[in-house]
């Protein structure tokens, strides 16, 4: 059996490093790319390059941003005393789609997962504690996904903030257990937010 030419092998290797991409899919994607014309391929690779070069994490909340501070944290109409804690940047956009949330966010960039060796020290928690200690925060909404790891993370944070005089709430039920927030429709997510309960 002949191996693919080295250039294609390299491409297959890079694709197979992506989440959810097995070897067969990596081969299919590699062939797809090679069969495109050069202009299309350059557009694709340039969009990856410029996203990586131009985006960073907002220094305040951890959202993607082209500047030091993201458009949500810069917006003076947003209620800075209400913080919705989410596990991934994509969850910020899930809540933004509901158009009903007017507070700000704090992105953890992960969840605690003892099985995968991910402890609380790897999460963006320091910034949250700093905010709680230095600003007038009225409410923290713990909006991690309703999975075991998401729940464990929320419990950890609620204990961490337990002694502070802040209202801590959790999204209401109605979100299917075990689901990722990004797949929950806007109406369900909006209602889960409206009917949030004390943690
Ligand atoms: Zn921000």
What do these coordinates show?
Helix 1 crosses helix 2. The chain folds into 2 domains: 49 residues, Helicase, Ruva Protein, domain 3 (Orthogonal Bundle), CATH 1.10.8.420; 142 residues, Dna Topoisomerase Vi A Subunit, Chain: A, domain 2 (3-Layer(aba) Sandwich), CATH 3.40.1360. The chain contains 8 helices and 7 strands. The protein has 199 residues and is an alpha/beta fold. The longest helix is centred in the N-terminal third of the chain and has 17 residues. A 5-stranded mixed sheet has the order 4-3-5-6-7. Strands 1-2 form a two-stranded antiparallel ribbon. The mean pLDDT is 91. Bound molecules: zinc ion. Zinc ion binds next to helix 4.
Number of helices: 8
Under the CATH scheme, the architecture of the largest domain is 3-Layer(aba) Sandwich
Largest sheet: 5 strands, mixed
Shape: elongated
Q: What is bound: which ligands?
A: zinc ion
Number of strands: 7
User: Mind telling me the CATH class of the largest domain?
Assistant: Alpha Beta
Q: Would you tell me the overall average pLDDT? A: 91
Instruction: Compute the separation of the termini in Å.
Output: 60 Å
Poorly predicted sequence stretches spanning 5 or more consecutive residues: none
Q: Compute the CA-based radius of gyration.
A: 20 Å
The succession of helices and strands, N to C, reads: HHHEEHEHEHEHEHE
Helix content: 40-55%
Strand order, biggest sheet?
Answer: 4-3-5-6-7
């Amino acid at each position: 059996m002949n191996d693919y030419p080295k250039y294609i092998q390299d491409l297959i290797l890079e694709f197979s490093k992506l989440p959810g991409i097995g070897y067969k899919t990596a081969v299919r994607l590699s062939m797809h790319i090679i069969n495109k014309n050069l202009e299309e391929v350059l557009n694709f690779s340039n969009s990856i390059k410029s996203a990586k070069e131009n985006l960073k994490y907002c220094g305040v909340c951890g959202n993607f941003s082209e500047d030091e501070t993201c458009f949500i944290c810069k917006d003076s109409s947003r209620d800075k005393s209400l913080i919705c804690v989410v596990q991934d940047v994509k969850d910020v956009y899930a809540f933004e789609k509901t158009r009903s949330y007017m507070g700000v966010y704090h992105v953890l960039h992960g969840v605690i997962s003892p099985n995968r060796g991910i402890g609380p020290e790897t999460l963006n928690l320091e910034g949250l504690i700093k905010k709680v200690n230095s600003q007038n925060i009225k409410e923290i909404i713990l909006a991690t996904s309703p999975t075991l790891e998401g729940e464990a993370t929320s419990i950890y944070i609620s204990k961490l903030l337990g002694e502070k005089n802040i209202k801590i709430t959790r999204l209401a039920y109605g979100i299917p257990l075990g689901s990722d927030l990004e797949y929950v429709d806007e109406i369900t997510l909006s209602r889960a937010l409206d009917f949030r309960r004390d943690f």
